[in-house]
Design goal:
Blueprint (H helix, E strand, L loop, with lengths): L10 E4 L5 H12 L3 E6 L6 H6 L4 E5 L5 H15 L4 E4 L5 E2 L7 H29 L2 E6 L12 H21 L4 E8 L12 E2 L29 H12 L7 E4 L1 H18 L3 H5 L9
Parallel strand pairs: 1-2, 1-4, 2-3, 4-6, 5-8, 6-7, 7-9
Helix pairs in contact: 1-6, 3-4, 4-5
Length: 287
């Protein structure tokens, strides 16, 4: 396809654009005059976006679990547009299972999508961003990385892994002019709790009152989530391009409530052990 472009337009590579927050990111990017490389496993889901924004949306097929396809997409974007200014790792899905219920196959698939896929994309774009001495990497995490509820252990673990990697990455690439941001959304009105949701096939009765309460058949939040994905996407871009971009952006009033309550609870629980913790050092004469 033929794309327009000028020196003032930034090129953003966004994953998981078939619906939800990914689609909202594409709309926010084109609204500020930039070019969005919108990716999804089925690029046909992106044709309407392309038609609505000619010259600003490049739809490409991308399964983030395939390293070969990731490299092909990055090479194509560089070959066609000459640069990648921003990467938004948005593709991912939720998974419900008690820890004992999770199967190796399901958990591996989850981590391939939610963690190893973003890692492969980061590794693919960094050589170009290093050469530019500029760029931004946005990793969409979840408030579940702060406080993981019963039944979401594996999903929360995949997001904790992404956040841990992002924390190190931010320190590694900041001297090179590259920004890193982690976004922790609460509940947004997307397909996350709908068609994108998966769970363990077999339920263990002993977990009925904990993880079992949060199985898909008991979750009626789809379509009633408080977060507006369009407003969320606009805020992420605003924060990223502001004078003092945060490393961590908590997104949504519900997410902020979880974040503050969890942080306060952690401090209160640890406080009685602070002095004993400090006393675990060798005595001075042993140093």
């Amino acid at each position: 396809m033929t794309m327009g472009g000028n020196a003032s337009q930034k090129v953003w590579l966004v994953t998981g654009c078939s619906s939800g927050l990914g689609r909202s990111f594409v709309r926010a990017i084109v609204a500020q005059g930039d070019i969005a490389v919108a990716t999804a496993r089925d690029p046909e889901t992106l044709r309407l976006l392309q038609a609505q924004h000619p010259g600003q949306v490049m739809p490409l097929a991308l399964d983030v679990t395939r390293r070969d396809q990731i490299q092909q997409v990055v090479d194509h974007v560089i070959g066609t547009l000459g640069r990648i200014d921003g990467l938004i790792n948005n593709a991912g899905y939720g998974y419900r299972a008690a820890v004992e219920e999770g199967t190796p196959e399901e958990v591996d698939r989850l981590f391939q999508t939610n963690f190893f896929g973003p890692v492969a994309l980061i590794q693919a774009v960094l050589p170009h961003m290093r050469r530019q001495r500029a760029g931004a990497i946005v990793n969409i995490s979840s408030i579940a990385a702060v406080n993981t509820f019963p039944g979401s252990g594996y999903y929360g673990a995949s997001k904790c892994a992404l956040e841990g990697l992002s924390s190190a990455l931010e320190k590694e690439v900041a001297p090179l002019g590259i920004q890193v941001m982690v976004v922790e959304p609460g509940a947004f009105r997307t397909d996350f709790s709908g068609r994108s949701f998966r769970q363990a096939e077999k339920a263990i009765a002993d977990y009925a009152e904990t993880a079992g309460r949060r199985r898909i058949e008991h979750d009626h939040s789809h379509g009633t989530q408080p977060g507006d994905p369009d407003q969320g996407a606009r805020l992420v871009l605003e924060a990223l391009q502001g004078p003092q971009p945060p490393f961590r952006l908590v997104l949504g009033a519900d997410a902020w409530e979880v974040y503050t309550q969890t942080t306060q609870a952690h401090i209160a629980a640890m406080e009685p052990w602070v002095e004993k913790s400090r006393q675990t050092a060798f005595p001075p004469d042993a140093l």
